[in-house]
Amino acid sequence: MILSQGEKNMSRFLEIPSFATDPASLHKEALFYTLNGFLSESKNLMDSPEYPERPFKGKERELIQLLIDNSDYKLRMYGSAEELLENINIYKCFPGNMKLFQTVVELYQNRPRIFPSMKDEKYIAKSDMFVILQNMAIEIGNSKFSDLPAILGCYVKSRMAKIENSIEFVKFDEERFEKLYKRMKERISLAENQATPAEFEQLVTEFSKLNESEAIEKFKRLVPSRMERIYLLENIVKLKFRSTRKEYTSAELTAVFFLHCNIHTSVLEAIISENPDLFLPRGEDSEAPVTLRVFEDGDRKFLMKSEIFNTKSKEPFILETITMEELFKNHEILTRNVEFIRYPITRAKHKATPIQTPSGGFCILAIDYFFEVMRELTHGKKAFQKLKSADVPQFLENAFGDIFFLTESPYFIEYHRTFLGNQHNLNVPAKDVRNAKKDGFTLQNLKNELAHLGLTTTFPEIQDYAEVVYAEVDKRKKGSVLRTCDLFDAVEQCQLICVLEILPKLKKFVHNQRGCHRVYGFKCEDCAAENSKNQKDQKLKILEKELENSKIAHQKILEENQQKSLEIQELQQKNLRLSVKNETNEVKMKQLTEKLAQSKLSIDYGTVCTSNASQLKIQCLICEKSIESGEDQVIRCPLCKRRFHSKCAINWLKDHKECPACNGELPTL
């Protein structure tokens, strides 16, 4: 992809500066991506000497490998460190991720996501505008004090709180953002140059009279923050207040740090106030278009009803959708002055990327929620290794009955990590999936593993699905041989098929929500029927197309034949005229030959023929009979002087206008 010059300039504000990168954010994102409890002990690693230090850029794989090595083998299902990191990077890329991942203290760590509109214009979420603002501010402030970016990050996050629940978007205007950065830099430089020694001395005097707690309170008024960020702020101020250098007192160091913090935050405040369309909620009197997300999942496009109508769903945790066609047909008035933002739904291997709701929460599609819950049950809680076969249907009904419906319309479910944990008590020991051999595992190994885990007791028919699942896992493997993570996938998929076969309602739900293709080797009767119907419809469409093409070809042939007939008629008429002309020329040649012969006779014998004696017989070209000498019922062509019988000429002129000899116009009789 070729970037424009503006995009190249703006890329430095989209990317988090390397000096600001922090391992804590990726660590928290890994906690959310992996199954509940798999990394519960990993927080202790933060104090480990092996834990990566800041700046963190380029050490991401190192951290993930550290988490894998200290997970008590629980992360084997996620593959290599590179694969897990790749999936986390897909999963974490969405507006408002800081709120879900609870990265309150850290600087923004994730690159903002750019969305195209239906008009193919670029847009960015308002919440992500604060990421750009942060990157601009800390790039300017990093050269002053090493702790200044942290203070500026706290300030930016405190200001972002006003639109924390917003799902508004603004145009991604590279030129405007570049001007905004230059204005910020110029104002900070000007304010720093205008700071007088007297002002500095006044601050030094003030801080020399304050104790540590009073100094912290002064900074708090400058940077209002949540409790977690206040703790960070307190630590920074304490370090400044307790630090001394040979040439500077602690009061002087604290005063100069406060001065720069004050200048930078004041400029940030001015930038936000001057650009309310970028950083503040849309006012009711605003003329800017309303932005609505159009979610795209394969060939389906739909919107969230609560985003359009500002209404709550009848069912808790459920967010219904509406298609673009329905919206324009039934609610056309709501589409005026609206910019539709295309929002592709993305999925990592094990989890779908969360989506912010109008109420400030997060959700995923119901079909994604189903697969994530099933993964939690199979590998997290190992539920089907602990349940009796007879208890499975009721267990599934209890787990899914209230949230999965038989509608064909896609719908969202709000994101709650503790949903299952509050409903099921499965604290019974169960076996772990064993490691695959270095050279991979076979179909028989898979069947043996299903028996080893006790799943053949819960699902007596489970080994019947092993072959189709094994073939599909083998097809999708990333390594040269089937690895342990592939064995986890195969065990999970075999259980999935069994669950769907046990509960028809769940099977119908998966079909209606277009999830059948995500179950390896699953044979869905509804899909087969639809495919058969689609094939028939496709064949009918092909036949209709062929018939239409045949009609067009036939019509073309008719038109070509008609054109050829006209050309043939024209050629026939031309041929007739040439034949007549040829005959005329032959007559003329004969006359000339006879005249020449007469002339020769006169010369040879010295005899002179009188005009009456040498009269030639003239032929009528129409009837091809001679015109007798002295015959007065004749007509002469005014051009070639050729004579015809009057009767012959009258009959000829009924069908023609031209002289049969020269094609000149004959006089009308």
From TrEMBL:
- Tell me the name of the encoding gene: Cnig_chr_II.g4357
Molecular-function GO term, any one: zinc ion binding
Q: Where is the RING-type domain?
A: 620-663
Keywords, sorted A to Z: Coiled coil, Metal-binding, Zinc, Zinc-finger
Q: Does the keyword NADP apply?
A: no
**Organism phylogeny:** Eukaryota, Metazoa, Ecdysozoa, Nematoda, Chromadorea
Gene Ontology BP term (one):
innate immune response
> What are the GO cellular component annotations?
membrane raft
- Judging by the UniProt lineage, the source's domain of life is Eukaryota
Query: Which Pfam family, any one of them, does this sequence belong to?
Result: zf-RING_2
InterPro entries reported for this sequence: DUF7809 (IPR056711), Znf_RING (IPR001841), Znf_RING/FYVE/PHD (IPR013083)
Q: Is Zinc-finger one of the keywords UniProt gives this record?
A: yes
Organism this protein belongs to: Caenorhabditis nigoni
PROSITE patterns, sorted: ZF_RING_2
Q: What is this protein called?
A: RING-type domain-containing protein
Give the coiled coil ranges: 533-581
